[in-house]
Write the structure tokens for this entry.
Amino acid sequence: MAENSGTDPAVETNIEENAVASATIIKVTVKTPKDKEEIAIAEDSSVAQFKEEISKRFKAQQDQLVLIFAGKILKDGDTLGQHGIKDGLTVHLVIKTAQKTSGAGSSQTSASSGPGPSQGTTAGSADTSPAGNLGTPLGTGPSPTPTQPPNILAGFGDLSGLANLGMGSANFMELQQQMQRQLMSNPEMLSQIMENPLVQSMMSNPDLMRQMIVANPQMQHLMERNPEISHMLNNPELMRQTMELARNPAMMQEMMRNQDRALSNLESIPGGYNALRRMYTDIQEPMFSAAREQFGNNPFSPSRTENREPLPNPWGTTDTTATTTTSGTATTTSSTTSSTTPSVSNPLGISSSSLGNGMFNSPGMQSLMQQISENPQLMQNMLSAPYMRTMMQSLAQNPDIASQVARPSFIEQQLMQQMLQMFAGGTASTQTPEVRFQQQLEQLSSMGFINREANIQALIATGGDINAAIERLLGSQPS
Amino acid sequence: MDRHDSTFGVQLFIYDLSRGMARQLSPIMLGKQLDGIWHTSIVIYGEEFFYGGAGISSCPPCLQGGTMLGPPDTVVELGNTEVTEEIFMDYLSSLGETTYSGDKYRLFEHNCNTFTNEVAQFLTGNKIPSYITDLPSEVLSTPFGQVLRPILDSIHIAPPGGNVISSQNNHS
């Protein structure tokens, strides 16, 4: 082969003009789907010669070889130089399999070969939208099976479901609010999310959660207002505990009930009641207003504002005394079902029931919970202020309760529980209690509890649990 | 080769699997901005080809409602190729038997984007945009990514609505 005989003048690629000089050997990598080989070949050889080499190396027939470079099929008559194949470059090789596959392929291609040229030309004319080319029914054998297991959902599933929720917002706060709303309207979702292993392992990494929480602008706002939050966030043990709680709703419920009981027992201690009340108002005030900003409107119905008005008192005013007389008992029912009219020592009409379960069910506290849940230590730190000491003193006289309260995470655990309860159970509180507890109310009235107001109170306090509500109603009867 | 010298357009369909969540949450969760979790597929000859947990699959491109991912986030023109469908299918079959079988799928190292990158090079000589192929290493270089790695490794993304290409099939 003489030098550069195959070099056409009409060379469009960037080849060196005189790639002559006998045979400069270049090493070209030939890559098949299965493997690749390096082939040394003269720079100016033709494709046919190249294929010869390849067929030797790959043990295939020359006419089975299809060489592709830069999207072009290398024809036998071309030269390597024509296509710009230089040292170190990779050429793709497809070894055509036996005729039968190409037979099937050709049936397909024949189906498409009719409109094929038109396809080719439209493709050539720079308009390559596949939609345009789909005049061809490519008749792809079996129609796509939609039953293919969506593995993607196994992993990302619920999270991507979350992702679909109102994703239009670019503002993270908006996003968060939307997520809240979605969560509120779909209590199932939270448990689904919790079950997602992705989420769970995320939760078990306190550092991660800390990062996430810190990055939240609202959190940062809070942190400015109360530097102790950052203390909390730096305490991995606490975070871990909190995450444990968040992960396990059943455990939460359990703890909630225990601590509701404990807290309501507190009221009966001399001085403790006032301390609780002070705690409630001092914390509730700033938190509630903070929460209000976040929530905009109070999402809960107006009938459920915090207990500033006296709750209706169907059992008469004797209940205030009933509260204190039941101090010794461990049961919470009697001490928490009663409602109190405003009195001198209780100007806000905050009844014991509100301080017990009711306190944590009120919308103010619930939104507070949500804030608190992001910084459990906050509550504790704030509580380590004066009134806590008063309470502690009172508690010191009663070792039982002291031990319950003395647990450092007491308060925030409680609040965490309430938060989750709110999410999981109280999400329906966007409706009025009457609507929420419609079914339970009917049941109660059919059982003979005709006092609708009392029923509602009881149901609210127990979160819709009929049996507990009945207990309350029964226990509240002055015996 | 009896085919005349026609060329076929090659497109790259890019999907964001997180549907925008990555763009918003990545600064928080990862500490760096990732605009999306990219899944890609090659569209040629009026069909969409992609690699997933089930191997190489194909389906009518999303514009006709193929995969469940909906319309792509971005479409990139990779150029034209002379490779015919026949050759391409041969090529895919070989690939599907070897390096791109379903069980070789690895979310980080050997995923749909690896596949499309290789096919793009085969068809046109061009690679796919680097921000896509760089994604796994970007994620893995964050602490969060490291934590999640064991979980993510077990996820196989296999968008349904496609047919698997294998040498037994007559080119679905």
